[in-house]
Every structure is written in structure tokens, then in C-alpha cells.
Amino acid sequence: MKQNSCDPSARKRVEKNQTRVNIDRSFTAVAEECWNHQKETWTEDHANRVWTRLRDNTFPRIGQRPIDDLHPQDVIAIVRDVEERDVMGIAQRVLQDIRRVYRYGVQVGKLTHNPAIELTGILRGRKSSH
What's the CA gap between 104 and 41, in Å, rounded? Predict the structure, then answer.
């Protein structure tokens, strides 16, 4: 029996499934998968620091967006925000964490390209005093 495309219950099922797919493909969902995959190789303290950096610096800006809808400019904006707080070491680690999540997304087939791969040199250098 064919289902009518105007059937409200069928439309709700499709919308619910699409919402689930979007949640599974959100940056936060992929980051959590990546973190769970990696955390067994890290000390508990390191794993907690990585998650805290992602949660505090990345999720508020791009966490709910689909990972395949993000662009290098989104990552640059996050890194610039951290740099504005004058914590260059954290900015470097945040960029590293984002790259790790993207790399994992490519490896598991949620992405075809890592948009953060070309961002080498994007961080501002520290002013040295001699």
C-alpha cells in the first residue's frame, strides 16, 4: 500500500528522522564521538581538558550546526575569539581540537573534506621581548 505524501503522520516521521540525522551530524555529536573514540588513549585529566576546551570555545558558536555545513571562516572566527582573550596557547589547542574532530568526521564518512586542514599559520604570533 502506497503512503500518501500528504499524510501528516508520514510527514512527521520524515521530519523526526531528519532531525535525528541532523543531530547525529552536528559538530557537537561528531566531537563527542571523536572524544569517546580517543579518550581511552588519553589520561583522564587530558581528556577532560580537551572536552572543556571544545565545550567552552567551540560548541557555543558551531555546536548545533551540521558538521558538513561548516567552513574555514567558522573555525577562524572561533580562533580569533580565543586570541582576543590573549590566551594564545589555548587558541592553538582549540584549533588542534577542531582539526581532530574534522579529521575523525572524514575518517568515519561524515565529511569528505577537512575544512580546518588549510589553516596552518592562521594563529597570530606572540610578541617576543628580547
Answer: 15
